[in-house]
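Problem statement: downstream parser choked on a complex file, so we are re-checking the raw output for the iron/sulfur cluster run. The parser issue turned out to be on our end (a line-ending mismatch), but while we're here, posting the original submission so the record is complete.
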Amino acid sequence: MVKTILKALDGPLSDVERIKQESNYLRGTIAESMEEPISSGISDDDNRLMKFHGSYLQDDRDLRNERQKQKLEPAYQFMIRVRRPGGVATPDQWLVLDELSEKYGNGTLKLSTRQAFQMHGVLKWNMKKTLQEINGALMDTIAACGDVNRNVMCNPNPYQSKIHGEVYEWAKLLSDRLLPRTRAYHEIWLDEQKIAGTPDVEEIEPMYGPLYLPRKFKIGIAVPPSNDIDVFSQDIGLIAIVENDKLIGFNVALGGGMGMTHGDKKTYPQLAKVIGFCTPDQIYELAEKVITIQRDYGNRSNRSNARFKYTVDRLGLQTVKKELEDRLGWSLQGAKPFHFDHNGDRYGWVEGVEGSWHFTLFVEGGRIADVGDYQLKTGLREIAKIHTGDFRLTGNQNLVIANVSSEQKNEISKLIDQYGLTDGKHLSALRRSSMACVSLPTCGLAMAEAERYLPALLDKIETIVDENGLRDDEITIRMTGCPNGCARHALGEIGFIGKSPGKYNMYLGASFDGSRLSKMYRENIGEEEILKELRVLLSRYAKERELGEHFGDFVIRAGVVKATIDGTNFHE
Ligand code: SF4
């Protein structure tokens, strides 16, 4: 094979690269910072490194001004993200997280859009205890954030549970084997003794090296026809190919990612592109080599342009494919046909294999909390106490009570009814197809509300939906508090990105199957204008749509926005 010669980017290293370089493989002074007794915060440098340990410092922004007036430091608290490959947790693990959220967190759990658990509001003094208890329950937070491969997603797929089982094993293998190898996490949080001597980098981080990756890295596995993990939003998207009920391998897509920066057209959401097919036993080696390409050629000067999608677009997809095959020493097979028909969840009970049942629960905004009469958290706790299957977090912030035996189905159903836990069937299909990132009050990057505001906005949009007879029409709607894109706004048929308090950029035209991006339709608008625009568009959709036509496709056909099938055209 002819070796490609690629040029790594020149330029000064960004500050985060310096922090990584000086950190002694992610140790920094985190241990000392955690023991410092005066401030409930930690230094910026340590906070950067904390991400690799699955956590970072936030402050309660609702209290910021008041505390400033009182000359107090911000109300610092940590977010902890628990890595769960494929979003699977046992009932015992559920109970541990439930208890920790009460004991040390803000009393709630957030199901993230990447099938991880998030706990907010943990104080510095409680961090070590919390992480130890998480690890004691055979979970961890390693690499849940940071410039490394994150939690690997996979389709929770209650419809084809045999294939799900297999795909889950591959997701778990990828997630576990692509973890950083440094013992920093174990030393700082789990009191592991430091081994004397200084091993070389090949021993410490054979794949990542001392600087790790230029930016975060994401992998997800979808099982068609469901694209509920938004496979094209991943740095490496794997599409399971099933023939005769057998998993024969994966189509490989490279270079997706959702984040961008307002006002910087060199940044954009991008879709991963399919480059070929490989067999299941090849995916670990493939992922590892892709990661090393990003390690070697990603932008380490400018973090806004550091994601793998920009590396792919700068070098060219075919060049990256060639470099990958050179590194692998084998070539990918041609991509196999596949078809996605939705990227949302399917709710309620479905029967799996061997008499098992799965119940997909609608969880608005992914927030597990008891609010007023809706005792969601308590109900799930009671279910976890008797459940003998598992829980699966979906990529849409919902929850599957999975692998319920036929003997237990009645008992679980009774608890579901007793606590009014909902499959969302009495709600509008629009609400069931909604997603919102955490945003305010805890996210430091948030420019506007998302999770706390979307339900109220949906109340008003539902009136329009009802007026137009669209209550049962699934339209994906997603809101994020900033352009970082945690709720994958650019793949919602209706998307909002926070611009400033109460103001959003509004996007339209993504496809229902997650294969086309949206485009900006209106900039910096508030609720009144949002509702005015949607009133016109939804009424037109109800009257003018073709049979079976989705809203995202309609707005393209009607000329409301242009189709965006490549992120490089996102701003056109
Ligand atoms: Fe925070 Fe932005 Fe992510 Fe929302 S999208 S959680 S505001 S970083």
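For whoever reads this later: The longest strand covers residues 246-254.
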